[in-house]
Write a structure and sequence with these properties.
Helices cover about 45% and strands about 35% of the residues. It contains 6 helices and 6 strands. The radius of gyration is 15 Å and the shape is globular.
């Protein structure tokens, strides 16, 4: 197994056991992270996003379905099951991840998932009917950014 694949597997094993510190150690100092809810996070901001999510996760289950990597990059497919705290609704989010590496650490991490599928589960009827729309995506991103800012101020 390539060392980069081992690193990806370590990252998700730490995630599954809710070990934000171990997840953070997998990231390069110059890490860039992006997903539909948290676009364009850099460095400590990306690490803090995971710390925040894990601190709030009462019933989180993370399953790594597939991972692979070589010297050029890596990928993973994983599933997160949890209760969305704002609505109390159950979510099963299927995510595809892409990675780039530098100095034996993750320097780029892109998570992709269906925002409509996620919002349909997390937000119920509102998400089902408006999850495809840019205004709902902007609202979710704005709320996520505010929550991360408040978490980082502590």
């Amino acid at each position: 197994m390539h060392p980069h694949e081992t690193l990806i597997r370590e990252f998700y094993a730490a995630f599954a056991r809710r070990d934000a510190g171990a997840m953070a150690r997998c990231y390069h100092d110059d890490v860039f992270f992006s997903d539909p809810a948290f676009p364009k996070l850099r460095g400590e901001e990306a690490r803090d996003m995971w710390r925040m999510l894990l601190a709030r996760a009462a019933d989180l289950e993370v399953v790594l379905e597939e991972a692979g990597a070589d010297a050029q990059g890596g990928h993973a497919r994983w599933t997160a099951r949890y209760t969305f705290s704002k609505t109390g609704r159950k979510v099963e989010n299927r995510i595809s991840a892409a990675f780039a590496f530098r100095d034996g650490k993750i320097v780029r991490h892109y998570d992709r998932f269906s925002f409509w599928r996620w919002s349909s589960q997390a937000l119920g009827p509102l998400g089902r009917f408006l999850g495809w729309s840019a205004p709902l995506k902007w609202m979710v991103r704005r709320q996520a950014a505010r929550q991360l800012d408040r978490f980082r101020e502590r």
